[in-house]
Structure prediction request, 153 residues.
Amino acid sequence: MRTGAGRHHDEVDAAVAAARSAFDHGPWPRLSLAERADYLRRLIDGIEARRDQVLQLQIDEMGATLKFAVENFNSLRPGLERMVADAETIVLREVRDGVVGKVVVLREPVGVVAGVTPWNSPVAVELPKILPSLLMGCPIVIKPAPESLERVT
Prediction:
């Protein structure tokens, strides 16, 4: 077993490979925007069902006040709904005039996304990276700050 940075590189490589495999072979990028939005709403349902645990986790992770954690928590569903509304305005297939005739512009999922997040308020800063990436059909690998993990492990 490798230690230190080498082990972390192996973990990153494995995470990216798994995300790429999911992108290339899994159903997610081929789902419609509405289907992906429905799955993400169910994710938020699951988070909301664990409200007390999620709030306590934010308090433990970063020493947040309950009021701050509640405000972050209460923004999750409205944030997702705003992202869905914004995504629904994107024209995914468009025919345009090109130099030599008509061209088709497709806006499709492009691949794996990477997200690096700070220590403060991990739930509130990770979901705004995770949700739009998944909403648009792209798997995401998140690298949280180690400080946000040390408090809860």
Summary: The first strand starts at residue 93 and ends at 98.
